[in-house]
Automatic annotation (TrEMBL):
Protein family (similarity comment): Belongs to the binding-protein-dependent transport system permease family.
Any GO CC annotation of this UniProt entry: plasma membrane
A GO MF label: dipeptide transmembrane transporter activity
Protein topology in the membrane: Multi-pass membrane protein
Main location: membrane
Protein name per Swiss-Prot or TrEMBL: ABC transporter permease subunit
Membrane spanning residue stretches: 21-39, 114-135, 147-170, 212-231, 266-285, 316-339
UniProt keywords, alphabetically: Cell membrane, Membrane, Transmembrane, Transmembrane helix, Transport
Species: Microvirga thermotolerans
PROSITE patterns, per the entry: ABC_TM1 (PS50928)
ABC transmembrane type-1 domain: residues covered: 108-339
Location in or out of the cell: Cell membrane
InterPro entries (UniProt xref): BPD_transp_1_N, MetI-like, MetI-like_sf
Any one Pfam family match given in the protein's UniProt record, by short name: BPD_transp_1
Amino acid sequence: MSRGGEHASALRSFLKRAAQFVIVLATTLLGLVAVTFFIGRVVPIDPVIAVVGDRAPPQVYERVRKEMGLDKPLAEQFVIYVKKAATGDFGNSVLTTNPVMTDIARVFPATLELATLGTIIGTLIGIPLGVLAAVRRGSLIDQIVRLLGLVGYSVPIFWLGLMGLLLFYAKLGWVAGPGRIDVTYSYLYTPVTGIVLLDTLMQGQMDAFWDAVSHIVLPACLLGYFSLAYISRMTRSFMLNELAQEYVIAARVKGLSEFRVIWRHALRNAAVPLITVIALSYANLLEGSVLTETVFAWPGLGQYITNSLQNADMNAVLGGTIVIGTVFVLLNLVSDLLYRILDPRTR
């Protein structure tokens, strides 16, 4: 085949994969919107009453119901909702009266900041622990790492949060209490990215920065521990598989140091599936930090959805759920794409 024919074939293959990626993404997101929408319609919560109150006259109730489009058939409501959602319009929040996307843009950086720091902590500690547990399989350190993982999976994170506040905040005073930053420092910087640590650092407000660090360290460590439990267990499993491969035996026969065999060769091959594990852990923290945000009064998306659900603000609940689900789907697709790029065997 000529060089031009090879380029044309490669281009067609790339376009085919890109089209498949777009179709899978669109289908998945449409399914996510459909499930979220219909669950929101079958829950025993009347969004009209949430707006007008339970003492509104019948004529007011019917007028608002028509304005919200709830008098139309369910299929027609879904089509209208999908069209609006495609443009980022999830309606207005009953609690704040703001567009839902405006509220989400305001609270999501707090969740992103907390989940990102938790994932970094879990990755930096979980991978070395998993490697050591695999290298010293059956030893005391292996048992300790496995126990840490078991506790991280078994103990409710809200209980750990309450115990952490009781010990490190109320008793020892090592960290700041609930919230994101003390009100004393909240006016010393201008929110730009919405990520307090980054904004205060860029603007040179070091007092505000260290106060924000004191607030985030405990909830981030708790989420990091939850992430660590998953990452260390999967790292141990991947490393045990790699250490049993023939190339590891050959490397040791050649006289390579144990450090190089483990950290340069075995871990390098185990790092490919670990990318997917870390991405899934990150997605889980983004969608599963509701209890942590509630315990620590963290003004993130999880707390926003919880407060909206408690007040029957279904536009906000549906919008927040769809945003979290979309992030989860995108992280899964990106991790799958990176997996294919880093491991030619999967192409």
